[in-house]
Amino acid sequence: MKDIDILKNNNIDIDASLEILGDIEMYDETLNDFLDEIDNKVNLLKEYNTSSDMPNYAIYAHSIKSDAKYLGFTKLAETAFNHEIKAKENNSDYVSNDFNNFINEINEIIKVSKEYLGK
DSSP assignment, residue 23? Predict the structure, then answer.
């Protein structure tokens, strides 16, 4: 049995997520899907940030925001939302200046998620 306290102790709103996803098996499956896809999404964010391609950057920030909301990653969802909005405003300065913060939050979630899943 996985220890959901690992999630709760890292400010992951598992209760809200379970209301959306229904049960812990669906949560785990969705979390595994997130982990399978996140490296590619981060690489694309880096590429679009470097090239100042804000329309495509906004698409991937939005995708991460949605995943984060479903999985109870409240802080990451808020950061991704800010990046999505700023990218849609073509504010590449904000995106560049806060990019490392965004990536660090993603990396922290990856670490906690893998610990929870025993990976």
Answer: S
